[in-house]
Design goal:
about 260 residues; Alpha/beta knot; 9 helices; about 30% helix; elongated
Length: about 260
């Protein structure tokens, strides 16, 4: 196992670059941190490039890391790599997913220009929990490999495909495969509980302030809303996505 002590080491500088979207897109790699995320990644070792561990960190005895490249670093280096106030000193460099054809599944969440990393990660995690076949992110969304998104998603990046593509294109491809697409809107929409049982579905949720783009709503099969019983104008997009995904998932035939 290597041991790096200098903050000026070129390898340390390269690791730090992965905290930027530009470097993640350039290399196809991203950085995760913390015992929970790294332990989840260990179940998908083919996606792990390297582990980095602070000399103060104690790895769980059940972790099988003998066949992985691992580098020990000083607490100072670990601190500079961390995106949290109280880092745990455990990191991994992972490869981005090799994505399958989106048309292979029957349940998808489509996300339109959601920019808050916490909302994005929560929706990825919820889609995973609801057993969806994938999440499709349109232009203007938060980077799914942003450290805050990764923490909010709690390892769901390893469990389901996260696809980035224009949503109009995704909607057309899904409709060609007879997957009904449902938008979310407060105008000209139906109560979500009126949706009948289906064999498949795709749900489109939108920007925290502006909602789903009208051009997308015009291409859906049906648009739905969640009734508001109190004085709030709307639900948080991640909460709304959770309500709708579970309703639609439970209404599927042959679940």
């Amino acid at each position: 196992m290597k041991f790096i002590q200098s903050m000026k080491n070129p390898q340390v500088k390269q690791w730090k670059k992965l905290l930027t979207k530009k470097e993640r897109e350039k290399t196809g790699q991203y950085l995760i941190e913390g015992f929970h995320l790294v332990e989840t990644a260990l179940n998908y070792k083919e996606q792990i490039i390297e582990l980095m561990v602070s000399e103060e960190a104690i790895l769980p005895p059940h972790w099988n890391v003998d066949d992985l490249d691992m580098t020990m670093v000083t607490p100072e280096i670990a601190k500079t790599l961390s995106d949290t106030e109280a880092g745990q000193g455990v990191f991994a460099i992972c490869r981005k997913q090799e994505l399958p054809d989106i048309l292979g599944g029957r349940t998808y969440l489509l996300v339109d220009t959601v920019q808050d990393p916490g909302n994005m990660g929560t929706m990825i995690r919820t889609a995973d929990a609801a057993g969806l076949d994938g999440v499709i992110l349109g232009t203007g969304c938060a980077d799914p490999y942003n450290p805050k998104v990764l923490r909010s998603a709690q390892g769901s990046h390893f469990h389901l495909p996260i696809i980035q593509m224009p949503l109009l294109e995704a909607i057309e491809q899904l409709r060609e495969k007879e997957v009904p697409v449902f938008g979310t809107s407060l105008q000209g929409a139906s109560d979500y509980r009126e949706v009948s049982i289906m064999d498949s579905f795709a749900l489109v949720v939108g920007n925290e302030g502006g909602g789903v783009d009208k051009a997308l709503l015009d291409r859906t099969d049906r648009n739905v809303y969640i009734p508001i019983y109190g004085q709030s104008e709307s639900l948080n997009v991640a909460v709304a996505a959770g309500v709708l995904l579970y309703h639609f998932r439970q209404s599927l035939k042959n679940v």
